[in-house]
Structure formats: C-alpha cells, structure tokens
Amino acid sequence: MTPPAQAVAERDALAPMPLIAGHPTDTQLNTELLAPIFSPTPRAWKMLVGMAATGSAMLAIGLTVTIARGIGMWGNNQPVGWAYDIINFVWWIGIGHAGTLISAILLLFQQKWRTSINRFAEAMTIFAVMQAAMFPLVHTGRPWFAIYWLFPYPNTMGIWPNFKSPLIWDVFAVSTYFTISLLFWYLGLLPDLATLRDTAKRKGQRIAYGIFALGWKGSSRHWQHYRIGYLILAGISTPLVLSVHSIVRFDFAVSLLPGWHTTIFPPYFVAGAVFGGFAMVLTLIIPARKAFHFENVITSRHLENMAKVMLVTSMIVSYGYLMENFMAWYSANPYESFLFFNTRVKGPYAPIYWMMIVFNVIVPQTFWWKRARTSVAWLWIASILVGIGMWAERFVIIVISLHRDFLPSSWGMYAPTWVDWFIFLGTISFFSLLFLLFLRFVPSVAIAEVKELNHEMQHEKAHAGEHA
Amino acid sequence: MTAPRVVLGKYPSVDSLYGAARALQAAGHSALDFYSPYPLPGSDEVLRLKKSPVPFVAGTAALIGVVSGVLMQWWMNDVDYAINVANRSVVPSPTWMPVTFELGVLLAGVSIFFGLMAIFRFPRPYDPLFEVEAFRSATIDTLWLSVAVKADEVPGVSEELRKLGAAQVELVPEEA
C-alpha cells in the first residue's frame, strides 16, 4: 500500500487531501482495520484498562456512599440545589450529541468524510449517555423509587408523572436517545461483526462474533432493506438529537431564574453540545489513530473538517453568550443585569466564567489558520481545552445562577465534596474503560462503509480518467 | 420433490456478477442472490427486488407512538389523576409535544430494528452457507452469486456459472 506520506507528496497541492490515502484493496483495508482486534494485546492498553478500572472503582464508591447515606453527601445545599450532578449530566449528554451528529446528520447530507469516524463517535454517544443517565437517577435520592417517579408506571398511590414538567420530558428524551443510538450503532456494526467472524481464525472468536453478527451474510436481498432502514434511522435520529438537547435546556429555560430564563437556550445549547462533542471525538480519536496506525483512513482532512465544525459551532455558542448579555442589558431587569454584569464577571466564581470565555470563544478562533487545523498536537490540546470550557459553561449556568439568590440574605457558596469528585472522575474513568474495551473488541472504524467509499472513489477516479 | 440445492459462484467484478445474473435469469432461474462486503449499487434492479416494506413499517410505528403518546398523557393527567393548573384548558396541551415526539421516534426506531430482524429472519447464527469455507470471503473482499436449483440441475448450473466467468464454484451442503 502507498504509505500516507508518499500519497500526500503525490497529490496536487490544490486538490483536497483524499479521504482514504493510497489505493488500498478490500483485503488490505480489512487487514489494516481489523489489526487492533487480532494483534496481541498491547501493554499500553492493559495499563490504561487497569487505570480506568481503578478509576471506575471510585465511581462505585461514590455511588455506594450516595445511595447508602443520601445526597447530603454531596455539596449541594440551599441555594445551590443543582450542582455537579446536573453539570455532569448536561456535559455528558452534550458530548454524546456529536456522535449522532456525525453518524446521522452527516450521513443525510452525504458527507463522505464521516465514514471513518462515525463508529468512534457513535460508541462515544452510547457510553456518554450511560454516564449522563446515572446522574439524575442518583439525584432522585432514592433511585429504587425512581421507576414510578420517572416513568408512567401503575403504582399503589394511583398517581402519574406530571407531563407538564420538563423533567419528565427529559426522561423520555434521554431514554429514547439511548435506545435509538444503541440500535443505530448495532445495526451499523452488523456487517462488520460478520466480517470479523469470517476473518477470525480461532474457533472461539468465530463463535463469539458469529453470535453477535446474528447471521449476516452480506446478501443483496438484505442490503436492500438494511440500507433503507439505516437511512431512516439516521433521518429520525437527526430531529431526535436536536430535541434531546432542547429538552435538556427546557429544564432551565422554563424556570424564572436569571441566567436560565431565556428563549435562546435550546438552539444555542444544541450548538454547544455539538461543539463539546466534536472536541471529545478529537480527544479520543487522535491517540487511537496514532496507536492503531489508522492514518490512512482517518486522514488529516478528517481532523481538519472536525476543526472547521468546531470553529462554526464555537461561533454559534459565542453568539449565544453575546445575546444573553445583550438581553440582560436590553430587558433592564435588575436581577438579570446583576447576574450578567456583576456576579458572572467579578463574583466569587468569575475565574470559571473567564476560563469558559477563553476556552470556548478564543481557543477555537485559532482554527481560522490552516496550520492550527492541521497540527495534530494543537488540535488535541485545543480539544481538551474545549472539553474543559464546555464543562465550565455548565458550571457557570448552574452554580453561578443559583448561588446568589434574589435576596442577598439567601446567598450561599457551593463547593463539591469528595463524593462529588469521586462520582465525576469515576464517570470519566468508566467512560474510558468502556471506550478501551470497544477499541479492542469491536471494529472501531466502519469497515464495510470504508470499503464502499473506497470503491466509489476508485470508480470516480476511473471515470475522471476517461473524460480527461 | 427434493429440497432445492444452492450453488455458489465467485465473481471477480460487479459487471461479471451482474452479467451472470442476467444470463441465469434469461435461462429461467429466479432464486438468485448476491453476497458482497458492502452494498452493490444497482443490485436491486438486477435482482428485480420489490420495494422494501421498511419505510411503511417505520411510518406506521411512528404514528402509533404519536397517538399513544397523546392518549397516555391525556388519560393520565386529565382523566385518571387530573392535574388542574389554574383551570387552564388542558386539551391539547403544547406541553405534550416533547413526550409525543419522543414516543413517535422511539417506536419508529425500534420497529425498524426489529422489523429488519424479522425480514432477515435473524438471529440466525448458523446457515448452511457458512459450511463453505471459501464463502467467508463474501464479507471481506469478494463477490458471490447464489442460485437455488433442483438437485438434478446442479451439474448443469455449476458448468453454466463457470462459463459465465465464475472464478470458483461451490455447492452448499444440504441442511442437516
């Protein structure tokens, strides 16, 4: 196969970087993309899994303490009734959204560059939503009762959830989102699991992957239904993802609290979710690409495109920040003005606010320069900064808005306890653990789709040759 | 009447695969199928496949989701345990929209997945086709054509497949 460096040198300087470097055959793509699964377990992977598993134990401890002794173990207290739990919930849900955006919306717009990265992104969605769902569930205090608090489950009290509350909308939105993302991911995986089954040499592997492949044979009679089903799933996932984050934002927007009560919230948070989510995709994909030598299929053009999406969404988010401030001034509401022009910018949590501005507004502005978009090291650093910035944004919205109540006598400060930290860092570890297992046991690049794209590209090239 | 036997032919290119399929169809064989690692453009037309029922299934399920979402919220919040907020009119309430929408999407998505499983008759981890070791390449890097024929036609069809450019011809063992 042509090495990537040579492929880059061969191409026309003005033509865009190809989506697949060189001219690989199906066999080569197959070997290359399945290598992480069939190669011996790398030491680094084992070490990372050990670290992630240890971190996940923190999550187990944090949750056990919370459930055994109650949510008084957290730092939340009047007036800050929502804190790490909701910050982390919204942060994780937002991270999940980029996965759906990449896999569904870019599929509908026939953006071919999604092919190499959609599987990563979808896995990220599922694992992120799993972390997110944990927080509100534990925040109910007695999660074993949550089934009839959250779902319309017939109970001896004869009561039902109140469907006028955005919190119940959240339950439906998040559970639907998780279910649909999982089905979409698994349906996309089906042909690749069959490829794994048929590539595997050992009987145990053949049987294991054979069970999960459900009997896929690549039959054209199946592909016909499969393609249309996959496309419709993508079609319904697109409004779904927009609805989920809009609904998450209704939790805030329908209240009367300064800093929450704005109509701009739903659209600006959808953009924010995509922004933070793309950052997380980059954070995960850059090391994985390097470790598994996927540079041929996850080319610098993919990374560059992701940087461009981040630049656009960052500017939508920046516009949101600007509009919030404008409205606070224009409404002439003293509580709004005080929050935006005093508490946020020079209150006790002001450093977090300014960190948010620097990481979410200024850092992505570097992506106007091609050098920044193509520097893998800078992309990785910037993606982590944006991840932190988006977390800070949720802190600013939730804690800063709550901690100075309408009456100064009711003001109070919030500080997380060790249990808050254990749960938060624990979810990061648990997410990493799931992701590491995914990288090792499941094809992390959609093989069937890359092969299809490869044929389309070669076909196009052949025809271009005819016309020349 | 013996059970039909399946003959497999491996083809080097999509054009030769389609050419072979058309020739077999002209000779009166209709139980054809292709196997490929990725969807082949134009295979639906060559195999003369009917339109997929999947969009209809998804649409019906979405409608059921929407209707049941509205009925559920109306019955729970206005009939069985009425929540009267400031005596506002409750039907239809804009606050029902999110749950109604989500249920429509949920049912559509679930019906697509399980509908596909029903159409494919999955899970079916074992298939006599998997007995043919060479056929494993169908999900990796090659194109295969299958044709179901009567037992006595097997030698003739195998020869025909070779003439039509098959690089390899295999007979699928009978289901045990």
Explain this structure:
- The complex is a heterodimer of chains A (468) and B (176).
- With 468 residues, chain A is an all-alpha fold.
- Chain A has a domain at 256-403.
- Chain A is 73% helix and 0% strand.
- Chain A contains 17 helices and no strands.
- Chain A has helices at residues 4-10, 26-38, 43-69, 84-108, 118-139, 146-150, 166-199, 203-213, 220-253, 265-291, 300-330, 334-346, 350-362, 370-374, 376-403, 418-441, 447-467.
- With 176 residues, chain B is of the alpha+beta class.
- Chain B has 2 domains: 5-50 and 128-171, Alpha-Beta Plaits; 54-120, no CATH class.
- Helices cover 44% and strands 12% of the residues of chain B.
- Chain B has helices spanning 14-26, 43-46, 54-80, 97-120, 154-163, and strands at 5-11, 32-35, 143-149, 168-171.
- Chain B has a 4-stranded antiparallel beta sheet, with helices on one face.
- In chain B, α3 runs antiparallel to α4.
- Chain B is elongated.
- Chain B starts with a strand and ends in a 5-residue tail after the last strand.
- The model of chain B has no long low-confidence stretch (mean pLDDT 91).
- The interface between A and B is large, with 65 and 59 residues.
